[in-house]
Amino acid sequence: MDLQRATAISSLKNNNMKLFNNNRIYSLDPWTIFSVFSTTETLTSKKFNVTTSLFFTGLFKLNLHDELSRRLYYNGIFCIFDLDENSLQPLTTKIDVGDGKNLIVYQGTLNSLLENDQIFKCDDFANVLNKSAFIFHNYRWTEICTKFSDKDIFICGGSSTRRHILAPIHLKLMTVLTNFDFTYQDVVSSFNDISKLKQISLPKGNLNPTKTYKLKQSKNSFNSLFLFLFHLFLIQIKLCLLYLI
Question: What's the number of CA atoms in the CB half-sphere (13 Å) around residue 157?
Answer without folding.
Answer: 10
